[in-house]
Amino acid sequence: PIIDTTRWLYGKYRDELVGYEDADQLGDVLAKVTKRAWMGYRIENSEDMRGYMYLYFIVASDFDKNAEMAEILKNPNRKPGDFGKAVADLSKEKVALLKASGTPPGDKDV
User: Fold this and answer.
1) Half-sphere exposure of 18 toward its Cβ, with a 13 Å CA cutoff?
2) pLDDT in tens, 52-83
3) 79/60 Cα distance (integer angstroms)
């Protein structure tokens, strides 16, 4: 899913990916972030992965420190797709709050 997720992210959010010159550079960092998502939160489902990458690269690199996001990610009863749905359901206000209170999105030092 790394290649598909890179294509999706770069295709949909290219103008918002500040500091990334091309999809290859994004793919290098995305692979590291994928490892972190999988090892830390068991993110395997493609929609969950897209939600995770959207938040990391577009909203705030440390979005998972937000209590609401951490609760969803760490929930032992979370089913595949739950996180992606939760991200898709975030209000514009919540996204703005995550962005304002978090670190800049797309941190390359993963």
Assistant:
1) 8
2) 999 999 999 999 999 999 999 999 999 999 99
3) 24
Question: Is the whole model's pTM more than 0.85, yes or no?
Answer: yes
Q: Which two tokens stand for residue 28?
A: 């290098």
- The pLDDT confidence band at residue 2, using thresholds 50, 70 and 90, is confident
Q: Exposure of 33 by Cβ count < 10 A (0-12 exposed, 13-18 middle, 19+ buried)? A: buried
More confident residue, 110 or 34: 34
Provide CB contacts within 8 A for 97, sequence distance 6+: none
Q: How far is CA 87 from the centre of its chain?
A: 9
* Helix locations, 14-105, DSSP H: 23-41, 46-54, 67-74, 82-88, 92-101
48, 63, 80, 93, 107 from 19: Cα distances, Å: 24, 19, 31, 25, 9
